[in-house]
Design goal:
Elements: H1 7-36, E1 41-44, E2 47-50, H2 66-77, H3 84-90, H4 98-113, E3 117-119, E4 125-127
Antiparallel strand pairs: 1-2, 3-4
Length: about 130
């Protein structure tokens, strides 16, 4: 006999090699997909901005920029829907300075647009269930 291994054993070994390669490819694809959900800085109008991911399964709050995480925590900490000024006070923003409060309002609206917060008809913000 010229071949010491039966054909079935060789076929099984080849199958395992192919399966191992397929597993490696799928693992790499999953890693790339996970990496793409992390917010990455981009440029809009010459300014560096961070894209905030939409609220969906698999996108954890920890993937948000730290200022967005703090903003969500402040809204969540409130016992009722809050105005931008109240969130600013919780975050120790100079609420009497328009140029300090307006970016916070923009962040709240941005988090609302991404499904992270809800804006009430009277302009107050609350968390989504």
């Amino acid at each position: 006999m010229g071949n010491s291994q039966p054909t079935e054993v060789q076929a099984e070994r080849n199958g395992r090699v192919v399966a191992g390669r397929a597993f490696e490819r799928v693992s790499e694809q999953l890693a790339d997909a996970r990496a793409s959900t992390v917010p990455t800085p981009g440029q809009v109008g010459g300014r560096v901005v961070t894209v905030i991911p939409h609220r969906e399964p698999g996108v954890e709050e920890t993937m948000l920029p730290s200022d967005s995480q703090r903003t969500l925590a402040a809204v969540r900490q409130a016992a009722a829907p809050v105005k931008t000024r109240q969130v600013g006070e919780m975050l120790r923003v100079e609420v009497n300075v328009w140029s300090k409060l307006e970016p916070l309002r923009g962040r709240l609206v941005g988090l609302t647009g991404r499904g992270r917060l809800r804006k009430m008809p009277d302009g107050r913000f609350t968390t989504c269930l």
